[in-house]
Amino acid sequence: MANIKSAQKRIRSSEKRRVDNLAVKTRVKSARRQAREALSAGVAEPAAEAIRTYSSVLDKAVKCGIIKKNTAIRRKTRATEALRKLSA
C-alpha cells in the first residue's frame, strides 16, 4: 500500500477508471455478440440494426479512449462486409 498521499489518490482514481472502462468494454462485447448472433440467424434486417448499434457502441468507446480508432474502424468494416455477404 502506498504511503504518499498523492500515490493513494492515484490508486483510488485508477480503480475508478478501471471499473468505468470495464463497463464500456463489456458493452462493446455484448453488442458484438448480438451482431454476430443476428448475422448467423440469416435475416438481413435485424442484422443491419444490430450492426448499426454495434457501430455506435464502438464509436462511443473510441470517444472515451477505451479502444483505438483503427481498431473500431476494422471491426465496423468486418461487420458490414459480413452483412453485405448476407444480403447478397
CATH architecture grouping: Up-down Bundle
Gross morphology is elongated
pLDDT below 50 for ≥5 consecutive residues: which ranges?
none
Give the count of helical stretches.
Answer: 3
For the sheet with most strands, the description reads: none
Name of the level-1 CATH class = Mainly Alpha
Task: Round the Cα radius of gyration to an integer and report it.
Answer: 18 Å
Fold-level CATH name: Methane Monooxygenase Hydroxylase, Chain G, domain 1
Number of strands: 0
Distance between the termini: 59 Å
Element-by-element helix/strand order: HHH
Oligomer: single chain
Helix content: over 70%
Query: Domains counted in the coordinates: how many?
Result: 1
Structural class, by secondary structure, is mainly alpha
Beta-strand residue fraction: under 5%
What's the CATH superfamily, by name? Ribosomal protein S20
Mean pLDDT: 95
Can you give me a brief rundown of this structure?
The protein is built from 3 helices and no strands. It has helices at residues 5-41, 44-64, 69-87.
What does this structure look like?
The chain has 88 residues and is mainly alpha-helical. The chain has one domain: Methane Monooxygenase Hydroxylase, Chain G, domain 1 (Up-down Bundle), CATH 1.20.58.110. It contains 3 helices and no strands. Helix 2 (44-64) packs antiparallel against helix 3 (69-87). The longest helix is centred in the N-terminal third of the chain and has 37 residues, at 5-41. The model has no long low-confidence stretch (mean pLDDT 95).
